[in-house]
Recover the amino acids of this structure.
Protein backbone atom coordinates (compact mmCIF):
# COMPACT_ATOMS: atom_id res chain seq x y z
CA UNK A 1 0.00 0.00 0.00
CA UNK A 2 1.55 3.27 -1.13
CA UNK A 3 1.27 6.51 0.81
CA UNK A 4 -0.48 9.28 -1.14
CA UNK A 5 0.87 12.80 -1.48
CA UNK A 6 -2.20 14.01 0.43
CA UNK A 7 -1.30 11.76 3.36
CA UNK A 8 2.24 13.13 3.38
CA UNK A 9 0.87 16.67 3.37
CA UNK A 10 -1.40 15.78 6.28
CA UNK A 11 1.59 14.52 8.28
CA UNK A 12 3.30 17.85 7.66
CA UNK A 13 0.19 19.72 8.81
CA UNK A 14 -0.04 17.54 11.93
CA UNK A 15 3.52 18.56 12.78
CA UNK A 16 2.71 22.21 12.16
CA UNK A 17 -0.18 21.99 14.63
CA UNK A 18 1.99 20.72 17.48
CA UNK A 19 5.16 22.66 16.66
CA UNK A 20 4.00 26.12 15.65
CA UNK A 21 2.80 27.12 19.16
CA UNK A 22 6.25 26.20 20.54
CA UNK A 23 8.34 28.23 18.09
CA UNK A 24 10.56 30.73 19.87
CA UNK A 25 9.69 29.52 23.38
CA UNK A 26 12.07 28.45 26.17
CA UNK A 27 10.35 25.06 26.35
CA UNK A 28 11.18 24.37 22.70
CA UNK A 29 14.91 24.63 23.39
CA UNK A 30 14.97 22.15 26.27
CA UNK A 31 17.79 19.74 25.44
CA UNK A 32 17.44 15.98 25.23
CA UNK A 33 19.90 13.31 24.10
CA UNK A 34 22.01 13.45 20.94
CA UNK A 35 19.97 12.46 17.90
CA UNK A 36 20.99 9.97 15.22
CA UNK A 37 21.86 12.86 12.89
CA UNK A 38 24.60 13.97 15.29
CA UNK A 39 23.05 17.09 16.83
CA UNK A 40 21.68 17.44 20.35
CA UNK A 41 17.91 16.95 20.10
CA UNK A 42 15.64 19.58 21.61
CA UNK A 43 12.08 19.24 22.85
CA UNK A 44 10.83 20.75 19.59
CA UNK A 45 12.58 18.03 17.56
CA UNK A 46 11.17 15.24 19.74
CA UNK A 47 7.60 16.58 19.64
CA UNK A 48 7.73 16.82 15.85
CA UNK A 49 9.19 13.34 15.36
CA UNK A 50 6.65 11.78 17.74
CA UNK A 51 3.85 13.33 15.67
CA UNK A 52 5.25 11.65 12.56
CA UNK A 53 5.56 8.27 14.23
CA UNK A 54 2.00 8.49 15.62
CA UNK A 55 0.60 9.28 12.17
CA UNK A 56 2.47 6.41 10.53
CA UNK A 57 1.55 3.85 13.20
CA UNK A 58 -2.13 4.76 12.83
CA UNK A 59 -1.87 4.32 9.05
CA UNK A 60 -0.27 0.90 9.65
CA UNK A 61 1.77 0.79 6.45
CA UNK A 62 4.99 -1.23 6.82
CA UNK A 63 7.96 0.99 5.98
CA UNK A 64 11.39 2.16 7.08
CA UNK A 65 11.39 5.61 8.68
CA UNK A 66 14.71 7.45 8.30
CA UNK A 67 14.56 10.44 10.60
CA UNK A 68 16.89 13.06 12.06
CA UNK A 69 16.39 12.13 15.72
CA UNK A 70 15.51 8.44 15.91
CA UNK A 71 17.72 7.32 13.03
CA UNK A 72 16.16 4.32 11.29
CA UNK A 73 13.00 2.70 12.64
CA UNK A 74 10.71 0.13 11.07
CA UNK A 75 7.00 0.94 11.25
CA UNK A 76 4.69 -2.07 11.14
CA UNK A 77 5.89 -5.54 10.14
CA UNK A 78 9.66 -5.42 9.54
CA UNK A 79 9.68 -8.29 7.06
CA UNK A 80 6.91 -6.68 4.99
CA UNK A 81 8.66 -3.31 5.15
CA UNK A 82 11.87 -4.81 3.78
CA UNK A 83 9.96 -6.59 1.04
CA UNK A 84 8.01 -3.48 0.01
CA UNK A 85 11.11 -1.23 0.16
CA UNK A 86 9.02 1.80 1.17
CA UNK A 87 11.08 4.46 2.91
CA UNK A 88 10.14 7.79 4.44
CA UNK A 89 13.09 10.19 4.79
CA UNK A 90 12.23 12.92 7.27
CA UNK A 91 13.70 15.91 9.02
CA UNK A 92 11.01 16.78 11.58
CA UNK A 93 12.49 20.27 12.12
CA UNK A 94 14.92 21.49 9.50
CA UNK A 95 16.26 24.69 10.99
CA UNK A 96 15.92 23.80 14.68
CA UNK A 97 18.18 26.62 15.81
CA UNK A 98 16.03 29.15 13.95
CA UNK A 99 12.90 27.56 15.41
CA UNK A 100 13.92 27.82 19.06
CA UNK A 101 15.23 31.37 18.60
CA UNK A 102 12.00 32.51 17.00
CA UNK A 103 13.65 33.21 13.64
CA UNK A 104 10.86 32.57 11.09
CA UNK A 105 12.69 30.15 8.79
CA UNK A 106 12.26 26.46 9.60
CA UNK A 107 10.42 23.55 8.04
CA UNK A 108 9.42 19.91 8.11
CA UNK A 109 10.83 17.86 5.24
CA UNK A 110 9.26 14.55 4.12
CA UNK A 111 10.44 12.42 1.19
CA UNK A 112 8.87 9.14 0.05
CA UNK A 113 10.75 6.44 -1.83
CA UNK A 114 10.32 2.88 -3.03
CA UNK A 115 13.89 1.64 -3.29
CA UNK A 116 17.32 2.33 -1.87
CA UNK A 117 18.63 5.36 -3.81
CA UNK A 118 17.89 9.07 -3.91
CA UNK A 119 16.62 8.63 -7.46
CA UNK A 120 13.93 6.31 -6.03
CA UNK A 121 12.27 9.26 -4.25
CA UNK A 122 8.89 9.79 -5.94
CA UNK A 123 7.02 12.13 -3.57
CA UNK A 124 8.09 15.05 -1.42
CA UNK A 125 6.59 17.62 0.93
CA UNK A 126 8.24 20.61 2.64
CA UNK A 127 6.11 22.77 4.93
CA UNK A 128 7.17 26.15 6.31
CA UNK A 129 6.46 25.87 10.04
CA UNK A 130 6.04 29.63 10.40
CA UNK A 131 3.85 30.54 7.41
CA UNK A 132 2.17 27.15 6.78
CA UNK A 133 3.19 27.43 3.11
CA UNK A 134 3.44 23.92 1.71
CA UNK A 135 5.60 22.80 -1.20
CA UNK A 136 5.19 19.38 -2.77
CA UNK A 137 6.09 17.33 -5.81
CA UNK A 138 5.46 13.96 -7.38
CA UNK A 139 8.00 12.56 -9.81
CA UNK A 140 7.07 13.49 -13.36
CA UNK A 141 4.16 15.71 -12.28
CA UNK A 142 5.83 19.03 -11.47
CA UNK A 143 6.28 20.99 -8.25
CA UNK A 144 3.70 23.07 -6.38
CA UNK A 145 3.36 25.72 -3.71
CA UNK A 146 -0.05 25.91 -2.02
CA UNK A 147 -1.68 24.38 -5.10
CA UNK A 148 0.07 26.56 -7.69
CA UNK A 149 2.66 25.11 -10.03
CA UNK A 150 6.14 26.57 -9.55
CA UNK A 151 9.28 26.85 -11.65
CA UNK A 152 12.84 28.05 -11.15
CA UNK A 153 13.80 31.52 -12.37
CA UNK A 154 15.43 32.14 -15.75
CA UNK A 155 18.06 34.60 -14.46
CA UNK A 156 21.66 34.14 -15.57
CA UNK A 157 24.94 35.57 -14.29
CA UNK A 158 24.37 38.87 -16.13
CA UNK A 159 21.33 39.55 -13.94
CA UNK A 160 20.66 40.13 -10.23
CA UNK A 161 20.99 36.61 -8.83
CA UNK A 162 20.48 35.70 -5.18
CA UNK A 163 22.29 32.75 -3.70
CA UNK A 164 22.85 31.04 -0.37
CA UNK A 165 26.34 30.06 0.73
CA UNK A 166 27.04 27.52 3.47
CA UNK A 167 30.72 26.94 4.27
CA UNK A 168 32.50 24.70 6.78
CA UNK A 169 34.59 26.50 9.42
CA UNK A 170 37.69 24.52 8.45
CA UNK A 171 39.79 26.50 5.97
CA UNK A 172 37.10 29.18 5.97
CA UNK A 173 39.26 32.07 4.77
CA UNK A 174 40.99 29.93 2.15
CA UNK A 175 37.64 28.82 0.73
CA UNK A 176 36.28 32.37 0.79
CA UNK A 177 39.27 33.50 -1.21
CA UNK A 178 38.68 30.73 -3.77
CA UNK A 179 35.03 31.76 -4.01
CA UNK A 180 35.72 35.49 -4.34
CA UNK A 181 35.24 35.58 -8.16
CA UNK A 182 31.86 33.87 -7.74
CA UNK A 183 30.77 36.00 -4.78
CA UNK A 184 31.50 39.17 -6.76
CA UNK A 185 29.26 37.99 -9.59
CA UNK A 186 26.17 37.31 -7.47
CA UNK A 187 23.90 40.18 -6.49
CA UNK A 188 23.10 39.09 -2.91
CA UNK A 189 24.26 36.37 -0.51
CA UNK A 190 22.01 34.77 2.10
CA UNK A 191 22.61 32.25 4.91
CA UNK A 192 19.12 31.17 5.91
CA UNK A 193 19.38 28.01 8.02
CA UNK A 194 16.92 25.53 6.53
CA UNK A 195 18.29 23.61 3.56
CA UNK A 196 14.90 22.13 2.68
CA UNK A 197 13.29 25.57 2.46
CA UNK A 198 16.21 27.02 0.55
CA UNK A 199 15.91 24.35 -2.15
CA UNK A 200 12.21 25.24 -2.36
CA UNK A 201 13.10 28.93 -2.69
CA UNK A 202 15.14 28.08 -5.78
CA UNK A 203 12.28 25.91 -7.06
CA UNK A 204 9.92 28.87 -6.66
CA UNK A 205 12.25 31.31 -8.41
CA UNK A 206 12.92 33.38 -5.28
CA UNK A 207 16.61 32.51 -5.28
CA UNK A 208 18.94 31.27 -8.02
CA UNK A 209 21.51 29.04 -6.30
CA UNK A 210 22.49 27.33 -3.07
CA UNK A 211 26.15 26.41 -2.64
CA UNK A 212 26.58 24.11 0.35
CA UNK A 213 30.19 23.03 0.83
CA UNK A 214 29.63 21.41 4.20
CA UNK A 215 30.52 17.70 4.24
CA UNK A 216 28.18 17.39 7.24
CA UNK A 217 25.06 18.22 5.21
CA UNK A 218 22.63 15.36 5.86
CA UNK A 219 20.42 13.42 3.47
CA UNK A 220 17.39 13.99 5.70
CA UNK A 221 17.81 17.76 5.34
CA UNK A 222 17.51 17.79 1.56
CA UNK A 223 15.85 14.57 0.37
CA UNK A 224 12.44 16.21 -0.17
CA UNK A 225 13.84 19.49 -1.46
CA UNK A 226 15.87 17.73 -4.15
CA UNK A 227 12.77 16.26 -5.80
CA UNK A 228 10.83 19.53 -5.52
CA UNK A 229 13.74 21.42 -7.08
CA UNK A 230 14.12 18.95 -9.95
CA UNK A 231 10.40 18.92 -10.69
CA UNK A 232 10.50 22.73 -10.87
CA UNK A 233 13.23 22.58 -13.53
CA UNK A 234 16.18 23.09 -11.19
CA UNK A 235 19.52 21.33 -11.01
CA UNK A 236 21.51 19.78 -8.16
CA UNK A 237 24.93 18.15 -8.41
CA UNK A 238 28.07 17.25 -6.48
CA UNK A 239 31.21 19.43 -6.38
CA UNK A 240 32.66 17.44 -9.30
CA UNK A 241 29.60 18.24 -11.41
CA UNK A 242 28.09 14.75 -11.27
CA UNK A 243 24.57 13.65 -10.35
CA UNK A 244 24.16 12.89 -6.65
CA UNK A 245 23.30 9.20 -6.41
CA UNK A 246 23.42 8.32 -2.71
CA UNK A 247 21.93 5.51 -0.66
CA UNK A 248 18.93 6.28 1.52
CA UNK A 249 20.49 6.08 4.96
CA UNK A 250 20.72 8.17 8.12
CA UNK A 251 24.52 7.98 7.74
CA UNK A 252 24.63 9.73 4.35
CA UNK A 253 26.08 13.26 4.26
CA UNK A 254 27.35 15.28 1.30
CA UNK A 255 28.03 18.81 -0.02
CA UNK A 256 26.10 20.00 -3.08
CA UNK A 257 25.35 22.80 -5.48
CA UNK A 258 21.75 23.59 -6.42
CA UNK A 259 20.67 26.17 -8.98
CA UNK A 260 18.32 27.13 -11.77
CA UNK A 261 19.03 25.72 -15.24
CA UNK A 262 20.65 28.94 -16.50
CA UNK A 263 23.47 28.79 -13.94
CA UNK A 264 24.25 25.07 -14.20
CA UNK A 265 27.01 25.29 -16.82
CA UNK A 266 28.74 28.26 -15.17
CA UNK A 267 28.74 26.72 -11.69
CA UNK A 268 29.88 23.30 -12.87
CA UNK A 269 32.77 24.84 -14.76
CA UNK A 270 33.85 26.86 -11.74
CA UNK A 271 33.68 24.05 -9.19
CA UNK A 272 35.17 21.35 -11.39
CA UNK A 273 38.21 23.60 -11.84
CA UNK A 274 38.51 24.56 -8.16
CA UNK A 275 39.64 22.29 -5.33
CA UNK A 276 37.81 22.71 -2.01
Amino acid sequence: MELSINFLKQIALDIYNVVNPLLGTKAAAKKSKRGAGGDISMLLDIVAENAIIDSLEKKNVPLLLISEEIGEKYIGDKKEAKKGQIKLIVDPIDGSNNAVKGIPYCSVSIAYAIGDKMTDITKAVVLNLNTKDIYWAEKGKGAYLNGNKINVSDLDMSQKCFFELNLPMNNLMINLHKLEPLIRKFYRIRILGSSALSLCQIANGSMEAFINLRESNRLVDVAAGVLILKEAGGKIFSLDGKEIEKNLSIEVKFPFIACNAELESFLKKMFINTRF
About this structure: The first strand starts at residue 31 and ends at 34. The two ends are 44 Å apart (CA to CA). The chain has eight helices and 15 strands. The mean pLDDT is 92.
